[in-house]
Amino acid sequence: MLTLYQQHDSGNCYKVRLALSHLQLPFRTVAVSSLDGSTRQPEFLSKNPIGKVPAIELDDGRFLAESNAILLHFAEATPLLPGEAYDRAKVYQWLFFEQYSHEPAIAVRRALSVYPERRADAGEARMAQLLDAGNRALAVVENRLASAEWLAGNAFSVADISLYAYTHMADQGGYDLAAFPAIGRWLARVASLPRHVTIDT
Ligand SMILES: N[C@@H](CCC(=O)N[C@@H](CS)C(=O)NCC(=O)O)C(=O)O
Q: What does pTM read for this prediction?
């Protein structure tokens, strides 16, 4: 059975659980976290030298890390990843955007707000910069969703799964989602899909 090494309240790990639920692939989880230092232990580093979660062990014993790479791996040849080259590249566009412009602001500001262990890094200037960068990323998402149901093409895909994870809890980092009505409607659309699971599941 697939083994997901994860921190349960991490959005990056939630992405993988959400995708596996949509694909109806059974998996077991092993808890690993930076908060207790276990991501830096040799045992975990031998599985994922990057030292971060999520990482997944496939049925044949091989490992894969990086949340969006894991999503792409399991989405291959399923409705979660378009076959046509341009539509597929649009999914990649959103996944790269998520990792470079969205997650580094929204996930980080949430972590600095939520975890007492991270408070020392939550200086005023940094929090202001992260708020600004996150709001700019949310505006990009809002702009797309104002005229489309889904992020890439006209179907739900791993682009939606990836962006949903940290967007749906952006309020925990101090972002005002009420300012982004199209995002609000999209969050509800994603959450109403059959096989959706919440982050607490
Ligand atoms: N780009 C990575 C980021 C993963 C990441 O930052 N994971 C955090 C938890 S959300 C982590 O494992 N941090 C542990 C550490 O930095 O020691 C991905 O998308 O999977």
A: 0.98
